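Section 3.1: Structural characterization of target chains.
Under the original work plan, the team committed to producing a structural model for every single-chain target entering the pipeline before any wet-lab resources were allocated. The record below documents one such target. The sequence was received from the expression subgroup and is listed exactly as submitted; it comprises 449 residues.
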Amino acid sequence: MENSEKLHLPYIMPSQAQKHVTHNEAIRKLDAIVQLSAKSRELATPPNTPLAGDRYIIADNASGTWSNKSGQIAAWQDEGWHFYEPCEGWLAWLEDTKSIIVFAEGQWMTFSQSSNTSNTSNPLENLGINTTSDNINRFSVSSDASLFTHDGTDHRLNINKSSESQTASVLFQNDFSGKAEFGLLGDDHFGLKQSIDGSQWRTSAIFDKNSASVNFPNNAFNEHLMFNLLQDGGRFAGSPENPGTTAGNFIKPTYFTSYNGSTFIEGGKFTHNNSTFGGAATALDADTASLISKLKTTALSRRLGPEFYLTQVNAGTGTVAPLTTNAVTRHLLFVNITAPLWSHSTWGINVKAKSGSLAIAPDPTNLQYIDGELQSETLVLEPEDGWKQIVVVGQLNPMTSNDYNATLFRIYGSQGAQLLMALPFLIPANITPKPESYFGRIASIQSWR
């Protein structure tokens, strides 16, 4: 073997004369290719006045002295051009562009090109600029500012997610603790939320994807006009609503209609000045007591107030309008009258599974909240889950809607289920609920006429 395997350097053979010639040839080659730095790779013909030690990577379509040498390294050494063929993986620094290139698959290319030759969808797995990237933050930058600019016309930053229930957002942090976030936050409505500690978040604004209207979930209720369009005030004691604190007999609401053979009966009663919370009148049953304890925060407000009934809905045996969730099929329990409906009204109700299980389906065209949190998936209720308040903020387009909704509440029951409901309301305005703040009794206009 007369030459080395990798760099093809000549060996000094045994009993060779003129050993210095072979040695100097190897030194010359090493001087040209070790720590390779080329003036350019843009020239296809030799420069007119090269300097000793100048090296070039010959461009395509080479001519003159460089003819048929494209891609090779041309070094001006000992007053002449010497040519060296690169090998796979060689690196070179380009002095004119201040960049590093690599010889891969028979050609010189940039690092990103070389990574991209076998897998066009994943050039680099991680990149850290002045900091360390990881498997979560695959692209990390530590800098006072970052610039993304146009390449002649527009510039758009795309943040893509895999499905509607995922998140595509911009998160703002203080010492790596989240403080504000905006984007598609677990659904396809554009939202803005904030946090005081990085763990508990409150939604500040929601831009509805269907109507483009804006809702502010944490606005106080008293900032809005509120009265109940239901003539009985949701008290289930007949219409018009009694202007006093007492309620007569339980009267099934006319605005709700049984479905699938369900039946409506009295399910309990809130009594004014009840003894459960320190008064002298009849004690409350357990279901009513737990409801008023959720809606009111003081013993006095839980003891005194206009009386109202709970309605118990017993599931029938019909099988129309099924809904299967978690391998359990339930059926719609009731519907409502098809009276004209304001396009931007708000309706709500308190519900509890007394027995069996319930499924509350989200409203496909409006914003539906459960206990002040925007609902995106079907919620299953068991008796141990207690009372939940459903509030739907209407987002109907007055130009395209049919001006009524036969299923203001999409509540489904398992076979033999018993639903308790209380204090329904219909308000002719959009009023967005907020967490841990609940609608209680909302008086009808009838009580003040």
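Helices lie at 19-33, 111-116, 286-295, 299-303.
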